[in-house]
Amino acid sequence: MKRITITDVAKMCGVGVTTVSRAINNHPDINEETKSMIMQVIKDNHYIPNNSARNLKRADSKTIAVLIKGITNPFFNQMIKVFEEEIQRKKYSFFLQRVDENQDEIDVAIELEKEKRLKGIVFLGGYFSHSKEKLTQLSVPFVLSTIGMATEFTPSDYSSVSVDDLKESYKIVDYLCNQGHKKIAIIAAPMDDVSIGKLRYDGYKKALEDHGIDLDLQLVRIMKDDIESYTMENGYVVTKELLASKEDCTAIYAISDSLAIGACKAIFETGKKVPEDYSVAGFDGLDIGFYYNPSITTMRQPVKEIAEETIKVLFDLINKKISHTHKIFPAELVVRDSTKSL
Amino acid sequence: MKRITITDVAKMCGVGVTTVSRAINNHPDINEETKSMIMQVIKDNHYIPNNSARNLKRADSKTIAVLIKGITNPFFNQMIKVFEEEIQRKKYSFFLQRVDENQDEIDVAIELEKEKRLKGIVFLGGYFSHSKEKLTQLSVPFVLSTIGMATEFTPSDYSSVSVDDLKESYKIVDYLCNQGHKKIAIIAAPMDDVSIGKLRYDGYKKALEDHGIDLDLQLVRIMKDDIESYTMENGYVVTKELLASKEDCTAIYAISDSLAIGACKAIFETGKKVPEDYSVAGFDGLDIGFYYNPSITTMRQPVKEIAEETIKVLFDLINKKISHTHKIFPAELVVRDSTKSL
Fold first, then answer.
1. CB distance from B273 to chain A under 8 Å?
2. How far is B28 from A248, CA to CA, in rounded Å?
3. In its keyword annotation, does this UniProt entry include Ribosomal protein (chains A, B) (predicted)?
């Protein structure tokens, strides 16, 4: 079906494009009769007004920026879509800014604030290890989305929406222990990580402890810092090393699904099978975890709910309805074919 | 390792942040001695200046917009990174705008031109079926990147960088035929597609013809239009229908790797194997094709080269070095484990 455009609507109505635009945007400067006629044509022809363009035009000074670390991380793709929809629904325009792993997101945000006259900021992903002084340099409301915060921050200094990474990580390791696994390797973040990496590692340690399993540091495997973090490639390289080291283990817990897929590939390359030789579990609930062979056992984050709530909190802050707030969503253990009981 | 910021550098040098910024940006208004001292501190401490922020500040009126259809398509993720790097290297700032599948990208571009005083536009992905009149509404140079164009366009009206989708599609189907496959299903785009979907389908038809195989329309399976196109989900749903129809086939050619992965999942769910029961081939050369089990036979597009050349052509147009040009890169047949000879 050919999409019809604003030009087509204008032609059908025998008016100019500007007039159609005025009708759509409720502009006062249009004859009511003309307006109803145009709206009827729009309705009859299922024309979908081009929201992006409209919002860009109307709302130059009403912009929400989303700053994202790791744009190649598929976990964020779904969230970006929801952010855009929710922000446009509020009649704000949406600005997506990628931040490199080695960039300081607050510096980027401060510049953006000036240039774009932002009304609010969403920080998505990444580590977050800024001083309170630094945070106070931001003059517009902001929300940290899916960024686990270590303890050094005072909750009253910022707002956040995420899962409880420690608790959810605990659950999946607890599940592996309950399946009889005692030698569970982890693919973890560098030990100076103070964000989701640390929290998920802490959950792993706590679950082992509660099951009376000693922490074996030989089974704690750190993502390579010269490869993009949380990627399939990183999980692949780390697992190849783990397998080559001949350390004894029956399960691998990767702290993201992408890492878990890389781990599976490394296992296949040594002629071993998942889950027959090694159980592999991930975290996040990416679509590919369902499509992978075997499908990947994971903790699914409620991505859509988190993204919607992020925007809700941000607008509540903008409208001064609330002071800083922290929303925690539960994740869901999804048991699939990549893990087995011993 | 804690990243050091511009504020840290300023403290170490005993100067203000503005002075550090002037040193980094080669601002004339700074004492040469102070400047060398600052640059030495920067070097000694491995401080990486925050390019995004710098460019945002400096180049508000020198912006290149990248308009992308299908931001969730992992094929584009790698390209976006290269675009950003190349554009920043030219000291322009980079603006990423998502375009919905049902949006008119030219309308979006026209609005953006006005708002952002753009110097150039990259259209990435999607169909492209605009009239010449429409294209002439764009007043700044633009390049179509990885958008295959059907014949209705005059090459002198636009510039493009892509692979030859018809020829490369031909190659992979030719390969399947040479492996002895005669009943090759295709997961294709809707028949009114005038872009890469049509070209890849035409390559399929031509390869069959050259091998003396009659086109069997029962084996031509169209992506669902109520599911995002070129996705794993679409390939999964279409392949489930194909398998349920009991049409006889030995190979499935999906016109993207994501579709191919969805196809594999559908095959596994019926208890069949890839490639033992069905060979499956994709197109694009996504990373996941390597990590999938079995790894996916595909036509790999030279993503980095295409992205770099796109920016080069765009700047040649901006600097009026060239008139419209069309760069075609070869793709590479990557034979992996998802296909077998009969």
1. no
2. 62
3. no
Q: B112 and A56: CB-CB below 8 Å?
A: yes
Q: How far apart are CA B24 and CA B54, in angstroms?
A: 9
**Residues 98-117, chain A, touching B (beta carbon < 8 A):** 98-100, 102-104, 107-108, 110-112, 114-115
In order of A93, B159, B162, B302, the CA distances from B149 in angstroms are 31, 10, 10, 18
Rounded CA separation A202/B19 (Å): 42
Contact B50 A104 (CB under 8 A): yes
**What ipTM does this complex have?**
0.80
Tens digit of each residue's pLDDT (9 = 90 or more) over A184-222:
999 999 887 778 899 999 999 999 999 999 999 999 999
Nearest to B50 among A108, A115, A268 (CB): A108
Residue A229 has pLDDT above 60, yes or no: yes
Taking CB atoms and an 8 Å limit, are B77 and A72 in contact across chains? yes
Do A287 and B232 make contact, defined as CB atoms within 8 angstroms? yes
Same domain for B128 and B84: yes
Q: Same structural domain for residues B38 and B185?
A: no
pLDDT beneath 50, residues of chain B: 1, 51-60
**Tell me, what CATH number does A242's domain have?**
3.40.50.2300
For the record, the structure tokens of B179 come out as 């492996």
Torsions phi, psi for B281 (to 5 deg):
-125, 145
Q: What is the pLDDT of residues A263-294, one digit of tens each?
A: 999 999 999 999 999 999 999 999 999 999 99
Does residue B53 lie within any of the structural domains? no
- Give me the residues paired with residue B118 across strands: B63
Residues 40-99 of B with CB under 8 A from A: 48, 50-54, 56-57, 60, 71-72, 74, 77-78, 80-81, 84, 96-99
Number of domains, chain A = 3
Nearest to A129 by CA among A214, A196, A78: A196
Q: Which domain holds residue B99?
A: 58-163+302-330
The answer to whether position B238 is within a domain reads yes
**A232 touches A260 (CB < 8 A):** no
Do B342 and B179 contact (CB within 8 A), yes or no?
Answer: yes
Q: Which helix (H) or strand (E) holds A165?
A: helix A165-178
